[in-house]
Amino acid sequence: MPHSIRPGDLLAGRYRLVDLLSESGNGRFWRAHDRILERHVALHVISADDPRSEGLLRAARRSATVLDPHILRVLDAEELDGLCYVVNEWGTGTSLDIMLGAGGVLSPRRAAWIVAEVGAAATVAHGAGVAHGRLNPENVLVDLHGSIRVIGWCVDAALHGNPDPRVEDDVDDLAGLLYAALTGRWAGASDSAVPSAPREHGRVLRPRQVRAGIPRPLDVLCDEVLDLSGRGRGLRAPESSRGLTAALEDFVGDPAGIPESLVERLVSRGSGPVRFSAVPELGLRPADEPEVEPTRVVRAEDLPRDEPTTPVPDEPEEPTVAVPLEAPAAAGPETEPDAPTQVTEIDNADTDTGTDAGAEPGPVVEPEGDLPTQAGLPSFDDDDEEREGRSQRPVPGPPPPPLEEPAPRPLFAPEPPDGGPVRRPRPGAAAATGAGDYWPWDTGTGHGTATGHGTGHGTGTGTGVGALGSMTHTGSGVLGEGVGVEDDQVPGRSTFRLAALLLAGVLLVVAVAVAFNLGRGRTPLGSVPEDEASSTPGSAATASATPEPLTGLSVTDLDPQAEPPEEYPELTGNTVDGDPATSWRTSTYNQDLGPAGLKTGVGLVVDLGSAAEVRSVELDLVGEGSQVELYVTEEAPTAVADLDPVADVTAGSTESIELEEAVAGRYVTIWFTSLPDVGDGFRGEVSEIRVLG
């Protein structure tokens, strides 16, 4: 690879090199500017004498034949001035590996939708016989609009020494993408920077064994494609990408809102290191490897602020505290789980990386201010505290005073000092009748006749003993006090009066309306009596109208699934010529019509000449057992898939299809979904059609 090319150079007199994005294997990947079309492009450059150059150009030509909106297209490929280069469409966004490392795993529906989008592109490319070869998370891009774009179709594999990739490997990688999006681990056929999936006894664990909460359909799908259970059920046929995509689309259902939610997960440059979340290895450590004590990660702000701290010289930029599990809990409530944590750093970018439900983001520590960090637990040495001249432990204060017994409360209320009665009447109420002090449980007779407006309303006489006597007379005060209350002081009484007045007004209006209608010979509701309605000439004509055959009919055939789309059009006029000896017929099919047959149906379209109300359709058929659907439309139909039938019958040799109610329209479509068996096949035949309206 020549070392003379550098940013600013002009390649092929057209592409200005801008940024060197990566360099590996004697190849370089540039962001360049197309001076002719004024746009950014991606540029792969290797030396012309590189053994991969011929395969790279061949892969570029094959990739250019695939047209799909998910694939970043090949725009140019050439060998010039000792260089071999391929120009691709430029995409801006976040690759799946960066998204998983920065924000954790995706929710099941988001993961299934992303892989379904990649699978749709793979289905198109595999149909043309072109495989990608390296469908790993690094080559799946979520752009700024939430759409999915695939990088380096067929070209990236050629740059890695595989100019003729296999379709079967793409199917494995599709399942690996789903596995990675759900678990944050890579299990596909290609290599990837995403950490490999955990293994047990030499076999990759299923997604539900790695992370909880993964739906069973997605777990089974990964198992069937990757053959994780070792049952030999792996799908390796080229059509597997189509089946996998269909299964994922069924799981996702309506994808509304998913692209917008992925935009929130985009990552831009400068947000710091990317960390993949921890996955326990489930005791898969070799027998000769010493046991390592698991650690937990504690945020720096959870440490005691008043303790002396010692910065860690080896890791000044990672404010992480490793605390043994057996140590006293020194961290705050946000201490991470006890599982061992594996951290992988990749260069990433900086937007909000909101984590999905069920995701477990990596242990990103957020330092606060210039607080240094320390390894291990803080020191609590009393001698050091005294030498420092400060005390770290609060001095206990004096004990609280003993609880005092509450003052005894009297059983009865004390007598008023002014000598008045213990109970006083309510404000605004008259004084109680009777002489002497008030005593609510008087054993004498009641207070005679009491007039007033208390709980009841009216005048009553109560006689009885004590409180029971007060309950027997209406209009008395509380507990037999003969206390009168003004009408305006009773809550809700004014509302009841207003409601009564409104009800009386409504009844009066209804009575006037009924009297008016009866006075002019109508029913109480104002409608015309039935005997008068039947005597009206116009209505009598409508009620007595009977369906009559419509004239001026013309018929055309309807066979949208044929090539050409016609079924004996020269015979269609025989169905409305009034001659039962002439007829129109279908072709003779080896299979009956329907979902399992060659066609789902075939039929005739009757043009009424103008819009009319159709009441019934009479058919004279040759043979019995036809299944007929009837459609009435305003426009001439080209297919019936989106129409609703007005009738669906099994027809005999003479069939009259009566509609429950008249349907207005100009075109009547007679659609056969099943034909009679004529011995050597299935064929339908119509001799006459009559439309009544």
Structure description:
There is one protein chain. The chain is an alpha+beta fold. The protein is 22% helix and 20% strand. The chain contains 14 helices and 22 strands. The strands form six sheets. Strands 16, 17, 18, 19, 20, 21 and 22 form a seven-stranded antiparallel β-sheet that branches. Strands 1-2-3-4-6-5 form a six-stranded antiparallel β-sheet, covered by helices on one side. A three-stranded antiparallel β-sheet has the order 7-8-9. Strand 3 (27-34) and strand 4 (39-47) form a beta hairpin. The radius of gyration is 45 Å and the shape is flat.
What overall form do the CA principal axes indicate? flat
N-to-C terminal Cα separation, in Å? 84 Å
Beta-sheet strand percentage? 15-25%
Estimate the helix proportion, in percent: 10-25%
Please tell me the overall pLDDT. 74
By helix and strand content, what is the structural category? alpha+beta
Poorly predicted sequence stretches spanning 5 or more consecutive residues? 279-392, 431-438, 442-485, 536-544
Q: State the major sheet.
A: 7 strands, antiparallel
Number of strands: 22
Rg, Cα atoms, Å: 45 Å
- Please count the helical segments: 14
